[in-house]
From TrEMBL:
Residues 1-28 are annotated as: Disordered. Residues 50-184, 198-343 form the UspA domain. This is UspA domain-containing protein. Residues 1-22 have a biased composition (Basic and acidic residues). It comes from Thermogemmatispora tikiterensis. Belongs to the universal stress protein A family.
Length: 347
């Protein structure tokens, strides 16, 4: 998502600032691709949309339930509640008793299922009895085994240095798994945020590999009657990184001109994408911002009432994510609205 390239990265990891006509070819051919890909999004593999909801027994993990229920109701889908037994489970998770055996896990999942069934939802429960060392790997295996179409998860992880270095379970699932992930951030008191979907934010960078988020956003907007806000962030001289930061210091006037041309190209690109969205019956408007991508997205979310961020992500985790400048893992924990992560096309 960041136009600047860090040292040691390949050209496929980070893009140079776009030129004035950057994204032109992409936008010109985007109509057919969006229509084709939109038909694949939230399409049930087994005849009914299946939402896989991993739970660990904590109140924090249950913050996903309003989102899962709303999506299942609107798409007439089925909720699959999953608990994976760990090889060495902690005694507590987030200050609450951890589910440590099959019997406890089944009782807990059935209690949650009863609450959801009271809302006329179809719910099934599954406890993975073979203890797993990697919860992420277990979730991925069940995505395939249960033919799940969407994973709905809470953003909470183990926290601290371990979470920083090894990445959240959600990012690992995205990296290894075949379907999108809906991430919910609990409120500060640990309660579940209410579900609403009126305005959807879609950050773009003009490259085909990061456009898979668009069909998902369009599909959701059409289903819920929501509007799309498309945003493209162009760096300033002070937010350039790596080799381009050096170039900006040595040749500030030249780099400033390059970035200004990039801004023009971004405006043209967003105009074409917005027009294509509107041709598919979805209200959309674009905005170009200047600065560092994550910071500008966070500030935009604070200024406007937005309900969801849709991103195409590489699923990088830990230090790899930090060094590569990946946007999704740096947004997790910094935004209060849900994130819908769709795998970038070069994975």
């Amino acid at each position: 998502m960041l136009p600047a390239r860090e040292k040691g990265e390949s050209d496929s990891d980070q893009k140079q600032p776009i030129k004035q006509d950057a994204g032109k070819g992409v936008a010109q051919g985007i109509g057919h691709e969006l229509e084709h890909e939109r038909g694949k999004v939230f399409t049930a593999k087994s005849g009914r949309l299946r939402l896989l909801v991993p739970l660990d027994g904590s109140r924090l993990a249950e913050a996903v339930l309003p989102s899962a229920a709303a999506l299942a109701q609107r798409y007439q889908g089925e909720i699959l509640l999953l608990h994976i037994l760990e090889q060495h489970p902690p005694a507590q998770v987030h200050g609450e008793r951890h589910l440590r055996d099959v019997a406890d896990a089944r009782v807990y999942l059935e209690e949650v299922a009863a609450r959801l069934r009271a809302q006329d939802l179809m719910v099934t429960v599954h406890v993975h009895e073979n203890r797993e060392q990697s919860v992420a790997r277990g979730i991925v295996e069940h995505v395939q085994e249960l033919q799940s179409d969407l994973v709905v998860m809470c953003t909470h992880g183990n926290g601290g240095v371990r979470d920083l270095l090894f990445g959240s379970i959600a990012q690992q699932v995205l990296q290894r798994g075949p379907c999108p992930i809906w991430l919910v951030q609990p409120r500060k008191d640990g309660s579940a945020p209410p579900f609403k979907l009126r305005r959807i934010l879609v950050p773009l960078d003009g490259t085909p590999e990061h456009e898979p988020g668009l069909p998902a956003a369009i599909a959701l907007a059409r289903t819920f009657g929501a509007e799309l806000r498309l945003v493209f962030v162009i760096p300033t001289l002070t937010t350039l990184a790596g080799e381009q930061a050096v170039s900006g210091t040595m040749l500030p006037a030249t780099m400033r001109a390059v970035l200004d041309l990039a801004e023009q190209g971004a405006r043209s690109y967003l105009k074409q994408v917005a027009e294509e969205c509107q041709s598919q019956g979805v209200k959309a408007q674009g905005e170009v911002l200047r600065g560092e991508t994550v910071l500008e997205v966070v500030k935009l979310l604070e200024r406007q009432e937005l309900d969801l961020v849709v991103l195409a992500s590489h699923g990088r985790t830990g230090l790899d994510a930090l060094l590569s400048g990946s946007v999704a893992p740096r947004l997790v924990g910094r935004v209060s609205v849900p994130l819908l992560l769709v795998r970038a096309t070069n994975l």
